[in-house]
Amino acid sequence: MSNLLGAGFARLRRSKCLWFCLAFLIVWVIVAAGDRQMTQTTIGKDGEVQKQILYEDLEKVVFSFLPYLGFVVAIFTGIYMGAEYGEGTLRNKLIAGYGRGTVYLAEAVVCASAAAILCGGALAVGTPVLLLMGFKLSVSPGVFLGMAVSGVLSAAACSGIALLVVTQIQRGRNAMAAGILVFFLLVVLAAWLDNRLEEKEALPGGWMVTEEGEIVPVEAAPNPRYVADPLARTAMELLEEVLPVGQGIRISNRDLEHMERWPPLSLAVTFAATGAGALLFRKKDIR
Question: In terms of C-beta density within 10 A (0-12 exposed, 13-18 middle, 19 or more buried), how is residue 52 classed?
Answer without folding.
Answer: exposed
